[in-house]
Records
---
Amino acid sequence: MMTDPALIDELKTLVEPGKVLTDADSLNTYGKDWTKQFAPAPSAIVFPKSIEQVQSIVRWANERAIALVPSGGRTGLSAAAVAANGEVVVSFDYMNQILEFNGMDRTAVCQPGVVTAQLQQFAEDKGLYYPVDFASAGSSQIGGNIGTNAGGIKVIRYGMTRNWVAGLKVVTGKGDLLELNKDLIKNATGYDLRQLFIGAEGTLGFVVEATMRLERQPTNLTALVLGTPDFDSIMPVLHAFQDKLDLTAFEFFSDKALVKVLGRGDVPAPFETDCPFYALLEFEATTEERAEQALATFEHCVEQGWVLDGVMSQSEQQLQNLWKLREYISETISHWTPYKNDISVTIAKVPAFLKEIDAIVGEHYPDFEIVWFGHIGDGNLHLNILKPDGMEKDEFFGKCATVNKWVFETVQKYNGSISAEHGVGMTKRDYLEYSRSEAEIAYMKAIKAAFDPNGIMNPGKIFSLKPEA
Amino acid sequence: MMTDPALIDELKTLVEPGKVLTDADSLNTYGKDWTKQFAPAPSAIVFPKSIEQVQSIVRWANERAIALVPSGGRTGLSAAAVAANGEVVVSFDYMNQILEFNGMDRTAVCQPGVVTAQLQQFAEDKGLYYPVDFASAGSSQIGGNIGTNAGGIKVIRYGMTRNWVAGLKVVTGKGDLLELNKDLIKNATGYDLRQLFIGAEGTLGFVVEATMRLERQPTNLTALVLGTPDFDSIMPVLHAFQDKLDLTAFEFFSDKALVKVLGRGDVPAPFETDCPFYALLEFEATTEERAEQALATFEHCVEQGWVLDGVMSQSEQQLQNLWKLREYISETISHWTPYKNDISVTIAKVPAFLKEIDAIVGEHYPDFEIVWFGHIGDGNLHLNILKPDGMEKDEFFGKCATVNKWVFETVQKYNGSISAEHGVGMTKRDYLEYSRSEAEIAYMKAIKAAFDPNGIMNPGKIFSLKPEA
């Protein structure tokens, strides 16, 4: 796309010396995220250090018809931050400061390159809490979290990233700097444009500053792991606990997932009884009474036959160990080259949906091992299919392409989402119509055209084609 | 605008018999909301009973270039639902059913004409809770709540209406039916168009169905009313209590407001000490320990000199009585023909902002009595100025027009909102640029043009001019 060295020289004048890289290593590193399907091929990586520099880059890109790709922690799972077509990657690695803290409003003003764990630590140092948390928190950046509306393991209590964005500064595809919502709790002055930029995957503009809300720290977090006789029993267990407690998490995983994690040898089994499914739930045991309520509900679930065995953490160490049963799954099964899909339906539909996927895959590919886990309290399922030993990768992924179609057709039938929390990017753009109607997609493209008339902002992400200018 | 009786006859063919009204009483009733500035002058009132009928009306209005005004409970305070220019009013009074309940997802599918209190009662009957609450809950409708992103007295804990909308069906200005977000908790498939319609005041389309989230019921709600020696002391009190408890409300009012309410004779004084300002806060006293924590914090605030006196409710009756001190203010002071304004700043800026307004008004109009109250935990202040006895209404409102300008200039200086929760409608459209930049307004108009290219949806609301088609 951009081979002219004169253009690179122009770009260099817009930022500080040394802040444009074109060496092969940098292009390869900054041109990709955690997905592997697309070969990185950017023209250059640029590192702005101020909002003004971002604006200059966007204005220059408009004049020169250069495509820009935003780059945060590059932990995305939908190739939304992959530059595979000669784009210029705009990395926010040097805009990584927490600029301001406001204790009365409980907010922190962040540059987009602030790492999630950095904000979590900052909050803790202030006696507060940033509750959005997920496996990649150690490297994902706030700007990227906002671009994908990141979710994770505490959504049932705290919601998605969207809930924690008090205000946003963005540079639109036209180069305008907008200051959206001004960190207010109540602001009824027309369309809340802030909401459009959350989850837009950088296709409307760049987030250049974000005021994030913080929360009081949770007290005495306590986890239970419960084994159930079948998947259906997980639902009344969720219902029973939600009636009594404000849950901070409600996760599930299958015995197949547990066996793999226990096979590592560094995590103790939760209890002796083998069960086909497990629920992990967490709550604040603020008082003795609260903990007793949890135990009473547990006993009630056992009496009802919904739970076969269970354990409740009695210390921070036990809490951590129970969480490892869930958190280690993804990494552990990665050795089996899994096909992965991140989908959601409403909570009530989860059991029927899961059974239907199991049946379709089992009928056609009986040798495929399906590992389910996910955030069941949000209706968010992570479907993982392990490559059978001895099957070639190509054959496996060929078969998985068929599975993909079945999964999305079933998602559509159940009125669910083809991407619960990973985004659309390039990996799911060709399937968007399974979740969004033709009319919706047309309105989305019209909005894109209003903010980015020249189609320079992360083109080819979310939508297959550039919107008409 | 629409004087042709043939058009009325066309309109009648789109709905059930008797569901178009043109008598003077109906035009007057359905043509206005709680604001008084604009004389109602609609051409007709139409009452659709189905989504299909709404679509027919919108398509017809596009063909005939007829302006439509949505009408809910008509309790708005910004004239967003006023038809002053021959528009056809679309009332949702006959689309007022709760269609579906889902206990596992804790959602209720509502038609737009469901009254807020009806949903609150429905939730209670199911052992759940709909937490958005405000003075007009007995007549405001869900569709209108969504159109204005209604807030109210529990925002500090539960957020605005926005937080409770799981899914929306809307008919856009082009007549398309969109099913937005499908009631999912996690859905990362492009722009969240649902968010655009929340707070759009009917300028992009009509909400024709909404899936609302419900919550577990609060336990043993308990209120404290605390008297403070000055306004500034309210802030550390908020801070101290928020550190220890999840507050469900944090309101404030001045002695001037209290005196007026006590003057009614039907509400007992909270305690004997006279104080210039009062805070009302509420929390769930789920356990004995929690109530003791509240008392200890109260004592700490007294020791620090932030609180002069206070009382904590010990029964449901006492809780109700304490709330009356706050809830009766608006109705009580209405006898003084007050100038009202609903504004917000970030919480930390509240004291300086309030003092600056007091100073400006006091300097120019020393005979004006200013009554402050509001949702201070959200930075939302209700400014009320009472008409001095003996001053003519015209003179008073003439002077208040000047006050308006000072208030909005001060709001702009403090980076606040000219409308915290009442919306823009017609009453604040000419002041929009005090809160939103020229570029933001241009993007809003472009979005409006995408959803409503012929400008038939509630024209003249939010924006002064019709967007270019």
Note: The mean pLDDT of chain B is 95.
---
Amino acid sequence: MSERTRLTRKPERGNDDPGVLHRLLDEARVAHVGFVRRGCPVVLPMAFGRDGNRLFLHGSTGAGAFLDSRQGLEVSVAVTHLDGLVFARSAFDSSMNYRSAVIFGHAMPVPAEDKQDALRAVTEHLMPGRWEEVRPPTPKELAATTVLVLALDEVSVKVRAAGPGEDPDDGEDRSVWAGVVPIHTAFGAPERSPLTDPTLPLPRSVTALL
Amino acid sequence: MSERTRLTRKPERGNDDPGVLHRLLDEARVAHVGFVRRGCPVVLPMAFGRDGNRLFLHGSTGAGAFLDSRQGLEVSVAVTHLDGLVFARSAFDSSMNYRSAVIFGHAMPVPAEDKQDALRAVTEHLMPGRWEEVRPPTPKELAATTVLVLALDEVSVKVRAAGPGEDPDDGEDRSVWAGVVPIHTAFGAPERSPLTDPTLPLPRSVTALL
């Protein structure tokens, strides 16, 4: 644990289990990547993937010089799940159940020879099984893509997974319902593209989501 | 439009409609707030609310000196919806449908006399209707809470809402299904707290979600 991953707020919500971190990352689809540009903070949503202790961040070489830096880029990456709304009997105790990881580190461009593997990790993270169903990147497509890699060495994980804080003698109005409404991600009916034959079955990568 | 909200990557996805921005913010529950601490980027998930052109960010006075700054804090705030997975016939064209707002500005602490209104905006944003059902904050609770306010003046909105890019003559394998799988947020069955009488009806703030 480093100075910046030490939790000053509600340290009891901290979690050092790598399994919790990995599952949290693997179940998420968007990472929010923060960096400093000309002294000012910038946060951008990015696709990502994971291979063991490495996080891959996917951008485009067109997405600004910051991604092209051969020296790498100091980043903070946040990945958050909102798991529930916590209805307490006071505004102050109203809360959210969540799992969040905040990662600090130096992101480096993935070298050309490793880019295909990194893109496979990102694609398989977003749409498991899809890589084998589709055409892999051409050399030109690979050249047009930037992937950054970041070690999962300096990470702060916080989890709240509980009902509302309530004290039997806190004087709140007990005639008010209190509890949790869980939140989850759901997938809708697949919408085929105009160039997809209507008789084509859904691929495994899609049926696995439904 | 400022230099830092000008889109260098896929400018056709930019959207200047304030209605799109407001709806995107009002439908989201978590904002990712980036700032610079000792020269390094930090990104944290935060609850938020909106009142017209003002965004309120909710933290705790315990969450670090950065939130207590009377001089305010330079921030970048990203709010993102992932609306769908886009299954193309190549890894390169695989994509996501999304709506994202990236806001830049100077966040200031809400003065004591306006804090209750700001907290109401955050609570009503997260759980519409809940404020009137529960006990409002006490003076002590208000003092223990920091809310930051940020003007929605410098904002970049990007939207992708389309099927996979596909060209009738691109040579991809047409026997592969292509299309979009929509993603949305769903609420599970409410779980009452131990101190909630089982005969109590669900409040309107909860039934409105289901």
Note: Strands of chain A lie at 31-37, 40-51, 54-60, 73-87, 95-109, 145-151, 154-160, 179-187, 191-192.
---
Amino acid sequence: MNIGVDLGGTNIRVAVMDDNGIIIEELGCPTEAENGPLPAIEKIIAMIQSLQEKHAVRSVGIGAPGPLDAKKGIIIEPPNLSSWKNIELTKMIESAIHLPVYLENDANAAALAEALIGAGKEAESVFYITVSTGIGGGYVYNGKLISGAQGNCGEIGNMIVDPHAIDAPNLNKGALEALASGTAIGRKAESVFGPGHGAKEVFLFAQEGNQEAAEIIDEALSYLAMGIANIVHTLNPEVIVLGGGVMKSKDLMLDPLKEKVVPLLYPSLRPHLKLKLASLDQKAGVVGAGMIPRQFLQN
Amino acid sequence: MNIGVDLGGTNIRVAVMDDNGIIIEELGCPTEAENGPLPAIEKIIAMIQSLQEKHAVRSVGIGAPGPLDAKKGIIIEPPNLSSWKNIELTKMIESAIHLPVYLENDANAAALAEALIGAGKEAESVFYITVSTGIGGGYVYNGKLISGAQGNCGEIGNMIVDPHAIDAPNLNKGALEALASGTAIGRKAESVFGPGHGAKEVFLFAQEGNQEAAEIIDEALSYLAMGIANIVHTLNPEVIVLGGGVMKSKDLMLDPLKEKVVPLLYPSLRPHLKLKLASLDQKAGVVGAGMIPRQFLQN
């Protein structure tokens, strides 16, 4: 059995699971990132140790927000874990629990779970895209996570889809994340509906038939469609799985998105497009984290 | 020993090579595509048979222009093999030579050769980009060609980098190939320097210090840099290898291209960019074709 740790900006989830990714027992607590890394790491260790007492755990996988150095097990400086800077996370936890600990980007961990036991199950190749505050992704081929030379595979939020579009901090001009993320939709909401309005209101208004809200969503989907078409022409994955809070509404998002992607593909690829909603929901992160150790053992 | 066949719009090359991709003997002839597929296929068979008589050949790999169906061994309808339409190429050749025959996209074949014994040798992951009449590519991970669910991995010519840019036939609006290929440079050359001028003149004029020619190249390189940055953020390959006629000039192309790609990458990725010129030149196609059979045997 392995333990998966989903280290988020708000919550930490720790779960012990069998080799099929079935969760046997799960613990959780708030991250309280504002208190710095040490208290949070102590809580992770305590939760792992309490699970170790009851279960025969072989190894631990952690999914955490980037940027991070997966190979060295270091959290570099994630925007949503402020004051975490060059933290040797795997080393610190390993020395306390005496088991091998592995680290991966949280989107990569979720990609692994969705590819192996979620919406991409049984496909040879799966590209996972998460659309929430930011846009990220992960690529799983033949059951293996392709992590990339510096662990940055799937950083599609920075993909340029419109070099004439707006600037956004820490991103390329016209990057996908600046145009199609929840943050991008929220920014548009504020400029159209006034301060205090965000992505949530846009979806609410659109469902009520508001034309301006529908246009905001339509623009974001148009850019997302370009990003997806670019991934298809670059990698031709068998299945593309869409997760993240923004994608939740099938009627409002997935179906219109499909309609926009198809005409952007080479004609021979159009009938083969498989765009699916993620099926593991909130669990993808912690389950995928628990699957990371096996990835290394297979190498 | 294996045989590689490089089936091009102008010439056919057939070579027998050892397991290291070293060519032992090579034959060639013009394709004469205008005569239709049958005479060309007969010439391929005759060349293979003449090599079979002298060498212990185990299998044959063919690199051919897309679109094609690699798994079924069918040439679908390539623009530069007009009148070839749904040709069951591997079946036709297999029945004549009684050896297993494998088919791959020509850019994928070249990618394999450059990754295994060319400029990407010893890298874990290599993305190969060819910039000539069109723009294509291929992705090799851990020594294996990632072909894609429908064999369309590396079709980056259709990647959207500027949705406000010009339309081009059979491509997305603002596709990389429409903005940065030899054809795109040639089209600009005609509009700036008048009919009869093409990409060749642009490079000549630029080398002589002509400002307008330099601007045409600069614009193509800017778009190519966006395409490369998009590939880096999608796949984070260890090495990117650039082949094709347009990339030949290191001073004019590779060095300025590097300068344009670096600022488009996440800061942590900038020091790691490895952009290299292809090293096998014209041979990549036929050598890579000869390496295709081994890819299937390894599966």
Note: The longest strand of chain A covers residues 23-30.
---
Amino acid sequence: MKFKVSAELGYEIKAPSTLVINIHALRTAHQNVIEETLSTPSYIKTEQLTDVNGENRFMRLEVPEPCTISIKYDALVDNYYEVRNHKDVAEIPVAKFAPSVLPYLNPSRYCQSDKLYRLASNTFGKIGSSFEQVFAITDWIHKNVEYLSGFTNSETSAYDTVTQQAGVCRDFAHLGIALCRALTIPARYFTGYAYQLQPPDFHACFEAYLGGDWVLFDATRLIPLNGLVKIATSRDAADASIASMFGDVTPTITKASCQYADETPFKPIYYTRSIFDGVTYF
Amino acid sequence: MKFKVSAELGYEIKAPSTLVINIHALRTAHQNVIEETLSTPSYIKTEQLTDVNGENRFMRLEVPEPCTISIKYDALVDNYYEVRNHKDVAEIPVAKFAPSVLPYLNPSRYCQSDKLYRLASNTFGKIGSSFEQVFAITDWIHKNVEYLSGFTNSETSAYDTVTQQAGVCRDFAHLGIALCRALTIPARYFTGYAYQLQPPDFHACFEAYLGGDWVLFDATRLIPLNGLVKIATSRDAADASIASMFGDVTPTITKASCQYADETPFKPIYYTRSIFDGVTYF
Amino acid sequence: MKFKVSAELGYEIKAPSTLVINIHALRTAHQNVIEETLSTPSYIKTEQLTDVNGENRFMRLEVPEPCTISIKYDALVDNYYEVRNHKDVAEIPVAKFAPSVLPYLNPSRYCQSDKLYRLASNTFGKIGSSFEQVFAITDWIHKNVEYLSGFTNSETSAYDTVTQQAGVCRDFAHLGIALCRALTIPARYFTGYAYQLQPPDFHACFEAYLGGDWVLFDATRLIPLNGLVKIATSRDAADASIASMFGDVTPTITKASCQYADETPFKPIYYTRSIFDGVTYF
Amino acid sequence: MKFKVSAELGYEIKAPSTLVINIHALRTAHQNVIEETLSTPSYIKTEQLTDVNGENRFMRLEVPEPCTISIKYDALVDNYYEVRNHKDVAEIPVAKFAPSVLPYLNPSRYCQSDKLYRLASNTFGKIGSSFEQVFAITDWIHKNVEYLSGFTNSETSAYDTVTQQAGVCRDFAHLGIALCRALTIPARYFTGYAYQLQPPDFHACFEAYLGGDWVLFDATRLIPLNGLVKIATSRDAADASIASMFGDVTPTITKASCQYADETPFKPIYYTRSIFDGVTYF
């Protein structure tokens, strides 16, 4: 499926600074970036980097002097996902996880799974399969956590949200991840462009490792599960923030949008409890 | 320099379980593991893994049934470190950090640098070079944080320790890392075997990225800086715990020791404020 | 009902110090302290005080020099409680609370009700009457929080316990209080001697203000509700700790016991969900 | 000294609600409220209450139905304070504190002194007298905590502020109180109207119990110490919030102002380190 995505970031910069920007659609075997353009002021040195795993890519911008800058990104992306029925998929035990999966069991900055063992076990521990546990976690978050802009900030973590029960997509994702890891289900953060998100913005949700697939879950239920263009997956938002700023930098604009650009009509996939369908972006 | 290191871990296991163990001396171009033996009960399936960066190596043990197990590790390691004077070493700006270094600027589970910006800036921000800042951080921790066994636990983080001001080597390391990152100095957790540590145990300290080197700092000042055999470096203890346990597992024994095994006499290197000497294990 | 209570506190004191001790059975119109003795070393100056509300009474001890002391308290108390059916008791709105009740709606050190509004409302908000809400809170705590000695410490608060889900009687009480206040139900901490508590110790539970009575609840369910001798009620443990120590003081002994001393057989009252019975110590 | 104070509070009320309002100038032997008027809509039932100590007074408003209300308060107050030199004032030990003073040593919701013992002791423990310690605390806060509107919220406590180092007058006061109590110096929260505060608003600072007086300290240094009209003193903001709202209430207006109304010119008193002058409002 083709999507046209675009982003705009603006900054007020008062001293020589460095920015690390995570807004590029990821290039994978199953997400083809057909064309993309990034426009930045010519006096800014930009550099495209890939992270240590060779997967996520991001831009580093060196701003030599005070200025006001605008960064624009546009891409046409051909995306691929699979829907798999997990009802009879065999669970993979920890003893069989690939080494690359194991870190997603560890607690991280915003997902303190180590502090949530008893709560996760008391609340979700008796539910049948891992798939059903993640489904129940997603349901619980959707039901109990209020989507509320401005309630949380960049320091808010799953440990806060599980009690305070309000936040934005990032907080929903962190809580989902933390609860999964507390149940020994690997989980990771997913950021991307989201079709039909209102108001348009960058979006965050999470993936749980189930039966050998990274299955997408979104406790906000704000978008269809198959309307996402992946920017990055990571331990949590600490490793995939839209922008990391080093210097005297004030963000002024953060915009993102996602339009459907395929000929065939878009058929949204939503959560359905009765069916064990899992959406995976390979 | 040669060291003979050994470890013993014991567990009471009440149901089929999986253990991930981080006790092997790391093999690097400058740390030669001359010989090593790991002894585990024969009915336990063991597997040696390397992490996603191909650096740290660890063991996964599959325990099929309830039992009491003991794991023993012995190794003879030839170690190499360099002492470099950092007085006139040029600082490297964020804009020049290799991509592999950048993640060590991000906050992590036990090192919430994002919550310590103002404190770090108010307390250490006006100190001259990055090297001197890290030295001052290490000094401050040594002076203000009391080494106190049993005060903290596996959930304790730098955010707690900066205020509560008591803990063990792990807590000292986490606080050092968090304060460095808050000042835009990459920092990482270092676990190893430590010569002359009393009582003998595994040890943790931290490395700061200064002038292109990962320089070792130890705010506990319990050991000479050149008496360490590296097990792992990582974001923080979440990624390098001695043992991660999945299942019904209770640790019963945790022992580690480190003996000097070289012919030439050991010449300890301690902290010296006046000299800008940094110890690096390459 | 008559109870014989006794307590022993021991301290290692290394410098001139002051202790404030809360172990006396409270004297009220309905709790008659028939006889009591407090024995302390003769060189220690003791003073009996009553708090600002003229209700709780406590001892202040001035220890002039280093020593090891033992404080013993014995009392025979005639106690009175009432069981009232709250099914048809009219609820009292905030607008009618006496001024002395209002502070028990405020958050306090260990009962951060302000941080639990959404959680309390999402979990208990739709339950019928205030009495049933408190009953459901007590049930939920009993079911989800594990009684575990040594897991928590004197800094642990309701905000911790609601997530960590383990603790001792003090933590159970604080969580109950915090959840009540978050639902606009006044609640206070209750410490006392508890009959049939195993192992014998001081006990803590809580009272909720319902229909004009302070009704006793105990989420630990370790004792019959009618086996308590009140020492103090307060905002939380911060105001009613067994001992506050000022100086270089290390507690060495903390013992308490409670024996039934009446002729008529003791008829224990336990929780019964179906009946709206509330036990109140006037 | 005479001050003319006024306040305006506005609320959007969507269901029958109760408000408890703390805006009246306190009436004491040394603060004479010469005249005051409170205007509220006639259909709202208002009731003036005094707290359990018979000191603070506050209003309870019963709003029977949805509405938009505005509450206005105006008063002419004749105020009295004393400046006392504390250089040679004998310190009072805990053993001599009146029972009414003791609760101000306990930790409270926003002043978790129990978590700050080591920090307070390490940072201020070696400073000479209690007066000088409180002065040093006030200095330290003024120097390290940035006055920043909107950074904190009603859940922010001293434990947060000591690390995050930003906040408003309320946060400055809570931190001062917590650090004092951690050093066994009783301290309490003070809210009032403040002359020359820019922009005009309610103000909060704190009092420390030194040599038998409650001495005023204000780490914000935004106002002269002798320009305050007391509304309330309390454990912390939990007990003296401007407004406690029970029901579906949204605050829309919060205004306060304070004008000098005396014939003699106002002579401001500011902090002076060299002199041990303490301002006390009796």
Note: The domain at 82-194+203-230+267-280 of chain C is CATH 3.10.620.30 (C8orf32 fold).
